[in-house]
Amino acid sequence: MNAHSDVNVDENAAGILPHNSEEATAIATETTLLDPRFYTTDFDEMDRIDVSPVRKEWDEMIAKMAADPNRGHFKKNENWTTPDWENMDPKLKAELIDFLVSSLTAEFSGCVLYKEMKRRGNNPDICQLFQLMARDEARHAGFINDALREAGVAVNLGFLTKAKKYTYFRPKFIYYATYLSEKIGYARYITIYRHLEKNPDNMIHPIFQWFEQWCNDEFSHGEAFALLMKTDPKLTQSWQNKLWIRFFLVAVFSVMCIRDHLRPEFHKALGIDIDWYDREVLRKTSEISKQIFPIELDLDNPRWERNLLKLREASAAMDAAKRRGGIGGALGKVSAGARAGLAFASLYLIPVKANEVPEDGRLVPSY
Ligand SMILES: [Fe+2]
Ligand SMILES: [Fe+2]
Hints:
binds fe (ii) ion, two-stranded antiparallel ribbon, 64% helix, mainly alpha
């Protein structure tokens, strides 16, 4: 399936929603520090990866993915009841749409990166893996786009591919960032799913019922990146790379917390306390990442929550300054930027815990 076939701008949407399709596309296209990004990398270097050191695990993993257990999953069925978008509280509606657009952007960004690797590569192992992962992400993105279209919003994915800025990351940074975003994606989806299992009255949108099997795809994508990192121990064991891993852990974790706090109505409607949710997701992701990362952030250190709050406040101040504009806004931006930098540095400098990476780190979804 090709997610590009879903490109469509619904003209009836204008005026019904706080976001129309153009606005939704604009939101998805915007690249700030916090948005899901589009990545590009040195595809030739990635193509040279030799998976022979992990051949046995590799073949087992590929066989599982090729069997395609979720082939029929991303289709609406009788459990899909279209939400009453028209009568929804406008703030909730805006945040729910924002959640869907941001999830779509993240899914689609994976799809674009994986498809590009498949297209540019010659290494059959690498091409096959990226083809399988692009297949999954295209389905995920297409399914969310369908849900958005029901709300009268369609993100123009073709436009997005061209207009969105691409961030260049060296392959090893792609491994760290993408590994983490796949595993954190798993942890987010399963935590929402388990919560709604216990609290079905908070099911504000039918898409959450699809999250259990969905997150298994993300889990196995994470496994694939863990194996890719296993092919070269330097990637995770050299002291420089340990510092980079630490950086990516802090960045990915803290950005998630900032973004979640921007959607208070959405979480209230789900009956989810954002602080509880973020702690749960980070605890799960941190536990999982011990399969490959030799260090673990100390999330129980009181400095973690304290500086996370400072970072969130600085980020909110930055937003306010941007909206204000003018000289006051510019000064506000500088001051908020400095505070954010300081808070981030404080998070980074919290001593980390050393972790003995297991010989065979493979995991199965267990939450
Ligand atoms: Fe996905
Ligand atoms: Fe994924």
